[in-house]
TrEMBL record:
It is found in: Cell membrane. Keywords: Cell membrane, Lipoprotein, Membrane, Transmembrane, Transmembrane helix, Transport. One of its GO terms (cellular component) is plasma membrane protein complex. Residues 278-411 form the ABC3 transporter permease C-terminal domain. The lineage of its organism: Bacteria, Pseudomonadati, Pseudomonadota, Alphaproteobacteria, Futianiales. This is Lipoprotein-releasing ABC transporter permease subunit. It comes from Futiania mangrovi. The chain crosses the membrane at residues 27-53, 275-299, 319-348, 379-401.
Amino acid sequence: MSASRPFGALEWQLALRYLRSRRRDGFISVIAGFSFLGIMLGVATLIIVMAVMNGFRIELVQRILGVNGHAMVSVYGGRIDDYETLAERLGSIDGIVSATPIVEGQVMASANGVNSGVLVRAMPQDSLARLDLVAGNVLAGSLEGLGEGGVAVGSRLAQRLGLRVGSTLTLISPQGRQTAFGTAPRVKGYPVAAIFEMGMSEYDGSLVFMGLGPAQVYFQAAGEVTGIELMVDNPDQVERYMPSVYDTIGGNAGVTTWKEANASFFAALAVERNVMFLILSLIILVAALNIIAGLIMLVKDKGHDIAILRTMGATRGAVMRVFFIAGAAIGVVGTLAGLVIGVLFCWNIEEIRQAISRLLGVTLFDPTIYFLARMPAELVAGDVLGVLVMALSLSFLATLYPSWRAARLDPVEALRYE
């Protein structure tokens, strides 16, 4: 034993033998089994939760940017009149992919005796055709009808109001013409030219797209727009384009980036992600504490064996390594098993969700609450590596004290009453 090299075959053989269940010390193996299950479930759960949170953020960012653009130029307290010239100047800035004039307003939509508040967004038809999130998800009709005075509505809004292609959607705005009895609401009907589904219930249930010309007439904004929407080549670094934009628009207008417009929303996502990580990490911590308890019981049970090994020439380091291997084996195998389960679960998360929903007869992921039609999961190498490092570190740390106790055992005291 004294001639064996550190972490050699003999030390591994002893460590694994101690972990095998026998009738006399089977309870210790049961504790080891629960420790293994705890680490496996903790690692798998953390990987799945981190992947789902990343998927939520990526999907929401793609949908938000796919509709709203990366920055919005607007005039303080008014509308932009010379918008074509300004849009051309903004579009010529290095890094600005496009500058699109838009008209936007909140109105009441009515059809078949049902009313609903909607947000009308109007832009040139060629610009709308470049929005893949809208143009690539048309369920019925065509966006070409918007140039002829039609509108495009989301699938959930169409379902709520009982609309289909060719139906008439009535838009009601409180800001109408002045009469002797006050302001008369502005009411006008538009044919439904297209029905789209972006997969985000907030947009599918409240957005109505129009052509720029009809919207200017409806909102009494002839020759004016409410803003100019900017698309940049690197949305994550949209701030670095802002100095050039401000130099172009002057001091009577402002710019709102997509990060500023959704700051509170994404900050809440980040806080929720961090809190979930901390809470679920407790599962791995509890499993590590089980490793400590199991190894301490194992050291106490194997006191006679340790004393014999010491009298045969085994060093304290060799004894310590034997019990370190026994505890670390539980952590390493449990971590790798959790990694496999977590990755496989993330790859098939939507199919698993649907199967559980059918089996239990409940809705596990309501798109009207979570804004998305499918449960997203995006594995990020950094997050997975962080979970693995944390689980392995806790597992290794959990073995140190029991291993040290085993190495400090006095063989004379252990064999005195034998």
